[in-house]
Specification:
Radius of gyration: 31 Å
Shape: globular
Largest sheet: 8 strands, mixed
Number of strands: 34
Strand content: 35-45%
Distance between the termini: 58 Å
Structural class: mainly beta
Helix content: under 10%
Number of helices: 4
């Protein structure tokens, strides 16, 4: 069993590379970064042809069947020189010191041509944009989705013209908008190339081995020891409390800040430009997501593990692997960490052992869920003079679970009088989507923003003074609330004249008030000749809010 080197599909044999002195085959799995390595080819006869951009592959035949690929990439620049300290010092003998680049380089091979109008992408989600990319012919070899393209939770993106740009540019835009990672990998089971586009924290692309520094864990089969020089580096340089997002609109840049991050660390600003962003809304959403992803210091682990040749191909850049440490923070038990970089070195005096230098990122601490409030929806109504009171039920759906909702009643009298109806009832949702308002609803007769009379609001006795409904937001994550009105009781006339969401100034990045709701008239019973009675529950509008502490 041994290493096998294939140049442009041809086995180079066993004498062209000197084992025990290979500096390392580098692969990376971090936002399309290209791993660059080197390999020396012996050319004693001076007739070995090595051409740039030809495919170059390294296999380890001691690995399990179907998992023997060690490295895949291309030939880059070469230096033709004497092999000092070797026999390659006379006649035409030479050493060809060759740079090699791994698969991520194909993301920049081709540009979308001016003639391809489909590359002028409409406003769409990041998922739709990536899925379109995989249908094109501009990634060679052809890149596939073998289950690692996350199609959930698409993020809205502006229209963008990618003609003259590469697949790398497109994927970078999508990753910036969504917070996902991307890289190219070789899938031996398909004998083809796949795309990973997903969050690093998701439970996919899993290594079957484990790493630990605890003697009792080591078994040499599935759990291996890493070197005593291993360390975790905790770096605050990525933490910013404000970000300016330049875009191509007239109001550029969007500026998003976080008082919480500034309080936890220090007030610092950065920029996150994106030439393919056109609107303030998308730039602001991108800034919010960016701040929510950098609200903690970054951790990166550096270690080296020695593996037998039969195991070395089981660890690959981009995989998640279980790691335990007795001295690194937050890793006292086996914890999945994502492998960002692997350098596979065959630098021992036996071909049976490899040293793998690795960089890994452990999971970030969970961003805090902030109990935010109050925010307040005021429903302005008045009544006609038809016989009997009319009833309107106002409903706000819980976005975490549409079956859970907060609701209440407004009663309108027969002669223009206004009467507040039943107490708002709260139906609990999931822990992160729990309406926490309780107590009696209150009313006031002050002037509404649009000039009508304010007759219904919400009050939370559990959360101190103020009118409002409390909601658990995750900082930086937009939430959409849907509003409905239902006509309930016979008799009378009731209608809405407008609505307003009142948001304290602390909730930046949310909505502005007033938020207009179309005028609607509800009629039931005698004395309402010529009027039409609506049926069922009517959707009256939605509002999206983002809490930026």
């Amino acid at each position: 069993m041994a290493m096998r080197f294939l140049y442009d599909g041809t086995d180079m044999g066993t004498s062209v590379v000197r084992l025990g002195k290979l500096p390392g085959f580098i692969t990376q799995a971090e936002l399309g970064t290209v791993g660059i390595a080197g390999i020396p080819f012996d050319d004693p006869a001076g007739n070995l042809t090595v051409t740039g951009w030809k495919p170059f592959v390294v296999d380890e035949s001691a690995g399990p069947t179907g998992q023997q690929r060690l490295w895949t990439g291309y030939i880059a620049d070469r230096k033709y020189q004497r092999g000092l300290g070797t026999s390659l010092v006379t006649g035409g003998a030479r050493l060809i010191d060759t740079s090699i680049v791994e698969l991520n380089t194909i993301l920049s091979f081709r540009l979308f041509p001016p003639s391809d109008t489909a590359a002028k992408r409409p406003a769409e989600t990041d998922v739709q944009r990536v899925q379109w990319l995989l249908t094109t012919t501009y990634l060679k070899p052809t890149v596939h989705d073998y289950g690692f393209v996350n199609t959930s939770g698409g993020v809205n993106m502006d229209a963008a013209d990618y003609r003259g740009q590469s697949a790398y540019s497109l994927l970078s835009d999508c990753a910036q908008a969504s917070g996902k990672n991307f890289f190219i990998y070789f899938d031996e089971s398909k004998n083809a190339v796949g795309l990973y586009y997903d969050l690093d924290t998701n439970n996919n692309y899993t290594c079957t081995l484990k790493l630990s520094d605890l003697l009792s864990d080591w078994d040499g089969v599935t759990t291996f020891a890493y070197d005593t020089d291993a360390y975790l580096e905790r770096d605050p340089s990525r933490v910013y409390s404000g970000v300016q997002v330049p875009y191509s609109g007239t109001a550029s840049p969007a500026y998003v800040t976080s008082a919480t991050i500034a309080s936890n660390f220090v007030a610092r600003d950065t920029t996150a430009p994106n030439v393919n962003t056109k609107s303030s809304a998308v730039a602001t959403a991108s800034g919010n997501r960016y701040l929510s992803s950098i609200n903690t210091e970054s951790d990166r682990i550096y270690l080296t593990v020695q593996l037998p040749a039969s195991k070395v191909t089981l660890i690959r850049a981009g995989m998640r692997i279980q790691l335990k440490s007795t001295y690194m923070p937050d890793l006292s038990s086996f914890t999945y960490c994502r492998i960002m970089r692997v350098e596979a070195k065959q630098d021992e005096m036996t071909p049976d052992l490899y040293n793998l230098a690795m960089e890994l990122i452990p999971p970030d601490p969970t961003p805090p869920v902030t109990n935010v409030g109050p925010f307040c929806f005021f429903l302005a109504t008045s009544a006609g003079n038809a016989g009997g009171p009319g009833y309107i039920q106002f409903t706000m759906n819980n976005p975490g679970d549409p079956t859970k909702r907060a609701y209440g009643y407004v009663t309108t009298g027969s002669s223009g009088a206004t009467i507040v109806g039943d107490e708002f009832t709260v139906i609990a949702g999931t822990p992160n989507y729990n309406f926490q308002c309780s107590g009696d609803s209150t009313a006031g007769n002050g002037a509404h923003v649009d000039g009508s009379t304010l007759i219904s609001g919400l009050y939370s006795a559990d959360h101190g003074s103020g009118t409002g409904l409390f909601y658990n937001f995750t900082a930086g994550v937009p939430v959409t609330f849907n509003f409905y009105v239902t006509y309930l009781a016979a008799g009378g006339l009731a209608y809405t004249t407008g609505a307003e969401l009142a948001i304290p100034s602390i909730y930046t990045g949310g909505i502005t008030s007033p938020v207009a709701i179309p005028h609607m008239t509800y009629v039931q019973g005698a004395g309402s000749a010529g009027s039409v009675s609506p049926t069922g529950t009517l959707f009256i509008g939605s509002v999206t809010m983002t809490y930026n502490p």
